[in-house]
Design brief:
The protein is α+β, with helices and mostly antiparallel strands and 369 residues long. The protein has 13 helices and 13 strands. The protein binds oxa(dethia)-CoA.
C-alpha cells in the first residue's frame, strides 16, 4: 500500500482510532475480601482501586484483543469486511502487546488478525510487560516511517487473572483484565494525532522485581517441577513502586525536553495505570496538577499493556480529550522497562462503550481517603 508523505521526511504515525474493551464480570474489593485477608479500605487507600474486570474461564487474551481491535477499527472508520469484498486491507500490520499471550508459541497477533478478517497482513507480538503499549507505539511508528505499513492496528491486551495466584493478596487486588487498541496511519508530524518524541529504556539488572519464574526456557531448564509460586506472577511491590515513580518521572521529563515542551504544555498526562498513588507521585514530581492526570485505575485496576489505551478510550468516550489537546503518555513495567511519548489528540468519534466499566474519575484524592 502506498504511504502518504507530504514532504521528503519520513511519514509520521497519526492516531486515527481508539477503543477499549473489558470483560463484563466486575470484581469489587469487598468480593476479594471474602476470600483474601484484605479489605476495601486497605485496597482503596493503597492503590485507588475500587474494582476490576476479570475474564471468565476459557476467555483468553486474544478474545479481549479481538473485541478491542474490532471497535478501534470501527472508530477509525475502517471495515475489515472490505478485504473480503476484494478491496485492500484496512491495515497492513497488527501488533499485539501482552504479557499473557494465549500460548508460549505462536504469537497471539496472527490469530487476532485472522479473527478480525485481516488474514494475510503482518502480525506479531511485542513484549515489554506494562510498558508494552508505548513500545508498541514506537514499533508501529517505525513500520510507518519506513514505509513498510501505511496503517497499523496496535492492541494492548492482558488477562493477568491467568497468571496471578488468586490466593496472593498482594497482587490479586491490583490486576484486572482488559484490552485497548489504537489505529495509526501515515501522515504528517504536525497534524493532530501525530505521535512523536519517544523515550524508551530498560534496566534488566532488576528483572527479578517482576517475574513469572516458570514457563519459559529458563524454567524448563531447571531441575524438578516448578512450585506454585514459580508458576505465578511475582512482584516485589515496594521496590517496584519506588522504581516506578523515579523512572516514569525521568522518562516523562526526558520526552518533554526533547520536544521542547514545558510541563505546563501538557493538557493530559496519561500514565500506565499501576496504582493511583504512583500516578499522583509522578504528576507531583513533574509539577503537573493532579487534575491533568487521566486515571481509570479505580474502575479497571492495573490492566498491564492494556492500561494506557483503555485510559485513552475511556477519556475519549467521556470527551475529556478534545481535539488539539496535548498528551504525555508514560509507562513503566517489568524488565524493568519504561517509556514515554507525546501526541496531540485528533478529531475522532467518541469510542463505543460496550459496557460501562468506567466510573467517573478525574483524579482528585477522594479514592485514597
Ligand atoms: O504494573 C507494573 C508496575 N507495578 C507497580 O507499579 C506496582 C507497584 N507497587 C504497588 O503498587 C504497591 O507496592 C502495592 C499496592 C503492591 C503494595 O502497597 P504497599 O503500600 O507498598 O504495601 P507493602 O507491600 O509495603 O505492604 C504493607 C503491609 C504489609 O504488612 P506488614 O508487613 O506491614 O505487616 C503487607 O503484608 O500491607 C500488607 N498487605 C496487605 N494488607 C491487606 C499487602 N497486601 C495486602 C492486602 N491487604 N491486599
Amino acid at each position: 500500500m502506498p504511504v502518504h508523505t507530504s514532504s521528503t521526511s519520513a511519514p509520521a504515525a497519526v492516531l486515527c482510532g481508539v477503543a477499549g474493551w473489558v470483560p463484563p464480570r466486575v470484581v469489587t474489593n469487598d468480593e476479594l475480601a471474602e476470600r483474601l485477608d484484605t479489605d476495601d479500605t486497605w485496597i482503596r487507600t493503597r492503590t485507588g482501586i475500587r474494582c476490576r474486570h476479570i475474564a471468565k474461564p476459557g476467555q483468553a487474551t486474544s478474545d479481549l484483543a479481538v473485541e478491542a481491535g474490532r471497535l478501534a477499527l470501527r472508530n477509525a472508520g475502517l471495515d475489515p469486511a472490505e478485504t473480503n469484498r476484494g478491496g485492500t486491507d484496512p491495515v497492513d500490520a497488527v501488533i499485539v502487546t501482552t504479557t499473557t499471550p494465549d500460548r508460549p508459541c505462536p504469537a497471539t497477533a496472527p490469530a487476532v488478525a485472522a479473527r478480525l478478517g485481516l488474514n494475510g497482513v503482518a502480525a506479531f507480538d511485542v513484549g515489554a510487560v506494562c510498558t508494552g503499549f508505548v513500545y508498541g507505539l514506537a514499533t508501529a511508528a517505525g513500520l510507518i516511517a519506513s514505509g513498510v505499513a501505511a496503517r497499523v492496528l496496535l492492541i494492548g491486551a492482558d488477562t493477568y487473572s491467568t497468571i496471578v495466584d488468586p490466593l496472593d493478596r498482594a497482587n490479586a487486588i491490583i490486576f484486572g483484565d482488559g484490552a485497548g487498541a489504537v489505529v495509526l496511519r501515515a501522515g504528517d508530524e504536525d497534524e493532530p494525532g501525530a505521535i512523536g518524541h519517544f523515550d524508551l529504556g530498560s534496566d534488566g539488572t532488576h528483572e527479578d522485581l517482576i517475574m513469572v519464574a516458570a514457563g519459559g526456557s529458563r524454567g524448563r531448564s531447571a531441575e524438578g517441577e516448578p512450585t506454585r509460586a514459580e508458576r505465578h506472577f511475582a512482584m516485589r511491590g515496594n521496590e517496584v513502586y519506588r522504581h516506578a515513580v523515579t523512572r516514569m518521572a525521568a522518562s516523562a521529563r526526558a520526552t518533554l525536553t526533547s520536544a521542547g515542551w514545558k510541563t505546563d504544555d501538557v493538557d493530559h498526562f496519561v500514565p500506565h495505570q499501576a496504582n493511583l498513588r504512583i500516578l499522583h507521585s509522578v504528576a507531583d514530581d513533574l509539577g503537573l496538577p493532579r487534575e491533568r492526570c487521566v486515571a481509570n485505575v479505580d474502575a479497571v485496576g492495573n490492566t498491564g499493556a492494556a492500561s494506557i489505551p483503555l485510559a485513552l478510550a475511556d477519556a475519549a468516550a467521556r470527551r475529556v480529550l478534545r481535539p488539539g489537546d496535548r498528551l504525555l503518555l508514560t509507562a513503566f513495567g517489568g524488565g524493568l522497562t519504561w517509556g514515554s511519548c507525546l501526541l496531540t489528540w485528533p478529531e475522532l468519534p467518541p469510542p463505543i462503550r460496550t459496557h460501562d466499566p468506567f466510573v467517573p474519575h478525574h483524579t482528585g484524592d477522594d479514592t485514597l481517603s
